[in-house]
Amino acid sequence: MIKNFLGVFFIYFAISSCNLDINDKPNIIVFIADDVSWDDIGVYGNDQVVTPNIDNLAKNGLIFNNAYLTTSSCSPSRNSILTGRYPHNTGAAELHTEPPLDMTSFPEILKDKGYYTLQAGKFHMGEYAKRGFHEVHDNKQINGLGGEDYWVEGLKERPKSKPFFMWYASYDAHRTWGENEFSGTHNPEKIVVPDYLVNGSLTRLDLANYYDEITRFDHYIGEVVNELKAQGEYENTYIIVMADNGRPFPHSKTRLNNQGVKTPFIVHHPRSIKSNKKSNSLISAVDIASTILDIAGITPSKSFQGNSFLNIINNPELKFRNYVFAEHNWHDYESYQRMVRNEKYLYIKNSRPQFPQEGPLDAINSPTYIDLKDAEKNKTISKVQAEIFIKPRPNEELYDLSNDPFQNKNLLEEGDIPHDYEVLKKILNQWINETGDTFPEKLTKDWYLREQEKFNESSLLKTEFHGVRGEMPGSSVLATKNNNKGPF
Asked: Would you tell me which CATH number, out of the four given (3.30.420.40, 3.30.499.10, 3.40.720.10, 3.40.50.1450), belongs to the domain 24-320?
């Protein structure tokens, strides 16, 4: 009798302990903006854009000053984050392509380990990723809402017996922009235009509308924070704020410079981060999956090519990576570029130098681009502004980020070339070889003419190659099966 009682007791204790373990795990929310550059958030030095809620999370959290995406293109970037793999290793290196169904995402692992997982807002990642979520709410509302309409509701309706992971993906600030409740927040006459864009009325209005979209994104983050506090979950929730690629302007989106692949990255967790902290260590988007699983006390998948930076969250002074890598493949137009950055220098290798880098369709279909073209025509354009029109471009670019934060001065065109040039070339080639990157003979060609007659989406002029895919980088060597992390 006593023996049976003890058996039942131990079974009950084991079950209770298991439930306690899962219920004690932290919640995690990732807020990911669509097309927002790293310095377009207040705490990164932009005193024009209104982002009080994000700024407040940052002031009581951890700001990463050197967080890098693996590409400046929406779906390849998001898939890279979700799988912890470089774009050519996901099988979906180009815009609007999907990884194979057997690809593993970190939300799927969280779900399998007892987390309730929810996606709301922009999806754009593929069918494999849907396995990772109990619910997917990816329908953009007719009234232009950016997916945030379900963020608070999702928190309210979640099962209260499980820790949760939320992938809250805004459509803001993707073009095209329309009226919203924050329109007019930023006065175009007061906008300070960066040197690489023309200080014209069209550009100032364009930037003001863009900042309005970011403010809207910020507002709904604040709504979620208020709901977390109301539910008593605020203290136990890791909040991450980031973006998928740079602003949809010339010189930014689809580029491998800081404006393209450097992302705002803020981590907030009251229980482990007690006051404003900053980390200058390099981190990569491929590290996010491992880090989130580490936060949840789960062993990362062997398929992840990144490493956990949880130790930095606990101790921001620690150094993490020596190098970060990024790639740019087809996004509306034919392209093939690779980038590596160390602590001081950023190196780009361009295998399609015959083409200019004006930006994707939404960037060249913008008022800002009209100002740039007019300045070019009128010969009032500066060298920095005219950089997007250069063709052929240099095969290689090297920038000193400590003295040239916006990559305006290619050191390889100067006389004094630092030793890091040879080091970074070698490291980039090592990464290419170890991770199974390839340079296909038949890349996907331009789907659209590079010079459009009109600037509106209904008149986009397509090429004869529209809808035709070339060979995906890495496909010939089965890069989707290659788990090598490359140099770290």
From this structure: 3.40.720.10
